[in-house]
Amino acid sequence: MAKTPVQFRLNGADKAVFVDGGENLLNALRRGVGDMSAKFGCGQGTCGVCTVLIDGEPRLACLTLAETCAGRGIETALGLAAGPHLHPLQAAFMQHFAAQCGFCTSGMLMAAKALLDRNPSPTREDVVEAISGNICRCTGYEPIINAILEAASKRGGQPSGEQGRARI
Amino acid sequence: MLEFRKEYFKDEREDGLNEVGQPRQRQDMLGHVTGRTRYFDDHAFEGLLHLKVLRSPHPHARLRSIDVSAAERSLGVKRVIRAADVPVNKNTLLSLIGFGKDDEPLLAVDKVRYKGEPIVAVVAESEAAAYAALAKIRVDCDPLPAVFDVEEAIKPGAPVVNETYPANTFEYHDKYNHQKLRFGDVERAFAAADFVLEERYQMSPIEHAPTETNGSIAAPETNDRFVVHTCTQALFFSLGTAAKLLDLPSNRLHFIGGTVGGGFGGKVDSLTEPLSILGAMLTGRPVRYVLGREEEMLYGCPRGAERHYIKDGVMRDGRIVARKVTSYFDAGAYTRLSSYGAVKCIAHVPGPYTIPNVHADSYCVFTNRTPATAMRGFGITGVDFALEVQMDKLAHKVGMDPMEFRILNAYRDGDLKAHRREAHNCALIECVQVAAEKAGWPIRDEFRRMNSLTGGGGERAVIPATVTDELGRIGSGRPASTPSPRAPTLPIPPPPRVPQPMAAQPRVAPAPTPVAPMPPAAAPPAREQPKPATASPQHGATRFSSVFGTRRR
Amino acid sequence: MAKHRGRGMASINYPIGMNLGGDPSQALVHSNPEGKFTVTLSAIDLGQGMKQVTRQIAAETLGVPIADVYVDTADSDTGPHDMGSFASRGTHRVGNAVMVAAKEARGVMLEAAAEELEVNAADLETDGRGNIHVKGAPSRAISVKDVAVAAQFRQGKTIAGRGIFLIPLSEVNAETGEMSPVSCYAHACLVAELEVDDETGEVSMLKMTSAYELGRAINPKLVEQQLVGGAWMGMSHALYETPEPYYPDIAHGPRDYNEYVMPGPGDICPHDIAVLERPAPDGPFGGKGPGEMCANPVLPAVANAIFNAVGVRIDELPITPEKVLRAIKAQGGARPQAAAGGRR
User: Fold this and answer.
1) CATH code of domain B49-143
2) FRET partner for A5 with CA separation of 20 to 30 A, picked from B124, B172, B256, C317?
C-alpha cells in the first residue's frame, strides 16, 4: 500500500509522517508521530475525546483526513504547558479536581483553550456551549465548567511562570 | 456544594488524622491534565496487527457453514481465527470462583444466541484491511425462533436459548430455578393488612458507555510469555479467564493495566483479551483488539434489564408489615455475572427497612440478547428504583409524608434483617433527617427525634415462624420461650439433596421437601465485628460451588 | 402549555463489597533505601481514585507524609492478587489490605528506630512529617530516612509489609435465603426538584439535595467527585439512557453517542450535598465506598418528583418525554399533587 508523506507543525515543532490513503489525523498523531494525548473514543465524531486544534480551531481528529493537514499548525494537550509551567487551564483543572479517569481531559482542555483564546471572558453559557461536544462520563461536568471559568478569571493573557508545577 | 456534618456519629470517630480525611491532590491528576496518563492503547509496538471480529446478524441461528477462503486471501490479512483454533472454547466467567457451568464459547461453534455474537476473528495489518476481509466471509445460517422477554422465556415451550440451561433459567443449589428469601408469613400478613399494593417495575438495560472502549494489546514478550495491556477492571480475573480459554499456565501471561478510561462494570467480562492473546500466539506479532463505538454500544455487555414485582401490605399507621418481591434478571444469552447479580439483588431485599414478613424469589433468565454484566449498582440499582417508587406510593396511600414514612419503617441497630443477620452501623434515619432539613422539607418533631441507635432490637430481632413452601408449611420454628436474638453464627443444616435427572427438570421449581426446623440459637454472641485478616471459623465454604451446588462442566 | 414543578425523595442503603464475601485483596508495602515507600497493588483505578485513596491510607498507617508514598498498580508480575474494582469494594477491601501491609512495615520501621535510639519500640511515635521520636520527648528523634539506611545497611532488616483482607465466603440457605451479604452498608437520601413540560413531556432537573453516609471520607475531594458524578449518572439513567428503547424488542439500538442520549453540560442542575460518617467497624479508618450508591437514589427520587409535578407514575425506565406525554394524555391532563414537603 503506497503511503503519502504529510508535513505539519505539531505544538510548534515540524513533524512529518507517512499515512495510508484515507487515514485520519488521530491515527497519524498516535501511531505516526507518537503523540498519544488525543484519544480514540468513537471514531464517529460524537464524543470529542480526539479534539485537537488545527490553526486554532477545535477539530475532531478522528474525522479529519491526515492528508488535509499538510502545512497546518496542530495543537494537542502535550503542548499546553510552557516547559514545566502548566497552562492556567491545566492548573485550574487540577485545583477543581475536574478529572477522574482522565480519558476526556485532553480533548476537553483543547476545546476549552479554543474558547479562551477567542473569548477571554466567557459566561457560563459560553463554556457550556464550548464543551457540549465533549462527553465526560465521570465528573458530571460541574467541576470542568468551574475550572474553565476559574482559568478565564485568573488569566492575564499569558500563562504566568508562577503557576508552576502544582505540588501534590 | 458539599458540606460535612461532622456532628453526626462523632463519638464513633476520631477526627483530625494526618492524611486520611485530607483533600490531597490525586496522584494521577498531573498526568491527566498534561495528556501523559497512559491507558492500555497508549503503548507503541513495532509490527502491530489489528484484530476485528465477524458478528452474528441474527439473534438466534444455527450455523451451517462458514467460508473464510476469500478473507484469508484478502490484502493485509495475516490470520483468520476460527472456533477450532480456540484451545478451550467454552467458559463461564465465574468458573474462576466455582460458580455456574461453562456455557459460552469465545467463538461460536454451531449456533449463535445473540445478535452480535463473535463467529470469526481476522488479524490484519490495519483496521481497514481487517474490516475489508470480514466483509468477504460467507456465513450460511438458519435463523431460529428467538425469545426476548424474560417471562416468555421461562414458559414451557419457549425457544431454548442456551442448552446448558434448557429451562432458560440459572440453577441454584442444584434444585431451584431461582434463589429464595423467606422470613415470616407474608400471606397471613397481607390478609391482616389495611392496604395491599402490588406493582410492576421495569428497568431498561443500560450501556456503560465509558469514553474509552473495551480493548487490549497482546504481544509476545522476550521470555516466551505474552504481555497484555488491558483496560480490565479485574486484572487477575481477566488473566485467569484468558489462561483457561487458551490453556496456558497463568504465569505465561503478564497483564499490565490499572489505569482505565472509565469502567462502571463494563470492563470485567474480559471481552478482548483472550482473542488478542490468541492472535499474538498464532501470528507471533503484537495484536490489538479494540471495540469500535458501535460494537461497544450494541454488543458490549450492558447492565441487564430487570423486572420487579413488588407486593406490600401496609397498616393505616404507616408500618409495612409484609413485602413480597419477585425479580427477573435478563441475563441475555449467557450467564457471565448475572447469576451472581440475581443473588445480590435478593440479598438487598426488602431495602433498609425492618419488615416482619418478607418473601422474595429472584430469577436469572436467559434470552436472545447481548449478554448482560455488572454495572454501577449491580443487582441494587434496579430493585432500589422499584422499592423507593413503591415506598412513595405506599406513603401516598396511607396519607403520610414520604420522609416520615421512611423514618418510621427504617431499620435500626439491633434489628434482625430478612437474611437473619443483625443490622448494625445503620444511618438511614440520619440521612433522611439531614436531607429533609437541607431541602427545607419539614418533618414532625417525633420523627426528628428518632435515630438509628435507639428503638431497634427486642421484638424486632426475633426470627419469625417462616413459611418455606407453596403449601404454607412452616419450615423454621420459632424457638420455644426465649426470643431468638441476632444469630449470625446460627449453624445452617445443609439443604437435603434431591437428585433430579437433567432431562426431567421442570421449568417451575418442585415443592421442596420440608426443611428440618432450625435449632434454637445459643446465648447471643458478642457483637464483635470480624477483624481484618482473620478467618471466621464457622464459615467453611471457600468456593461458590459449595455454596450453590456442584458445578458441572 | 404549562411547566409543572415537583419534588420527590428516595432513601437507600448500599452493600459494601462483593456480595457474600470471598473477595480477597492483597497489598505489598516496602521502603526504598531512603525511607520512601511504595505500595504495590494489582487493584485498578477506573477514575474513582483507587491510587490516591490507598496512598492516603498507607501514609496514615505508616505515619509518614503523603509525599513519601506512591502507589504502583497494576502489573500481574509485581502486584499481588486483588479481586478487582467493582461492587464498591476498593476502599474497604484494598484499603484494609494496605493497612495490614503498612502496619507490618511500620512495625519493622519502629523496631529499627528503637534499636538506633536504644529504647523500646512501644515508646516511639511518628510525627507524620518524616520523623520518629520518643513519646513525650520530641528531641529524642531520628528521621525515617536515617532509620531506613540503618535498617538496611547495618541492622539487616527489611522495612516492608504484606497484607491480605478477606471476608470469608458466606453460605446461602436454599430454602430461606439466610446469608451474610456484606459486613457494612452506606446510606443516602436524596431530594430531586424538577419541572415537567406537559406539552412535550420533557423533564428538566432543577436541583438535587442529598445526604450520604459513607463511613469515613478518606479524601473529601474524591468523595465529592463520586457524589457529583454519580448523581449525574443517576439522572442520566432515570431520564435518558437505554440501548433498547423498545425493550424487550431489540430493534433501534443506539450506535453512537448521538443516539445513546445522556445529559450534557447544559442539562445539569446544582447539587447540594451533606456527607455523614458513621465508621464501619471493619472499614479502613471506618471507610465504606461511595462509588455506586451515589447514583441510586436519584432514579426513584426523579420518578417520585414527576408524580408530584404532574400526577403520573412511570414505572419503566428510562422516563422519556414520550412516556411522560402518553401518561399525561391517558389521564386527561397534568394533575399536580400537593406540594411535597410543604412547598414547591
Assistant:
1) 3.90.1170.50
2) B124
> In the structure, what pLDDT confidence band is assigned to residue B487 with cuts at 50, 70 and 90?
very low
CB nearest C52 (choices: B27, B236, B381): B27
pTM for this model (two decimals): 0.92
Q: Which fold has domain C3-16+183-339?
A: Aldehyde Oxidoreductase; domain 4 (3.30.365)
Decide if pLDDT at C264 tops 70: yes
d(CA C119, CA C137): 12
Asked if the C-beta of A163 comes within 8 angstroms of chain B's C-beta atoms, the answer is: no
C305 close contact with B: CB closer than 8 A: no
Listed in sequence order, the DSSP H helices in B201-292 are 235-246, 273-283
The CA–CA distances, whole Å, from C61 to C5, C54, C116, C343 equal: 49, 10, 21, 48
The answer to whether the CB atoms of A168 and B213 lie below 8 A apart is no
Instruction: Note whether B211 contacts A41, CB cutoff 8 Å.
Output: yes
Q: How far is CA C209 from the centre of its chain?
A: 19
| Angstroms from B273 CA to nearest CA on chain A | 18
CB atoms A37 and B293 under 8 Å: no
CA distance A33 to A61: 14
Residues of chain B contacting A39 with CB distance shorter than 8 Å: 39, 41, 211-212, 261
CA C213 to chain centre: 11
What per-residue confidence (pLDDT) applies to C340?
A: 86
User: What CATH number was assigned to the domain covering residues B215-299?
Assistant: 3.30.365.10
Residue in A22, A42, A137 closest to B293 by CB: A42
* Tens-digit pLDDT profile for residues B320-352: 999 999 999 999 999 999 999 999 999 999 999
**Residues of A in Cβ contact (< 8 Å) with B29:** 93-94, 97, 99, 102, 166
| Domain definitions of chain B by residue range | 49-143, 215-299
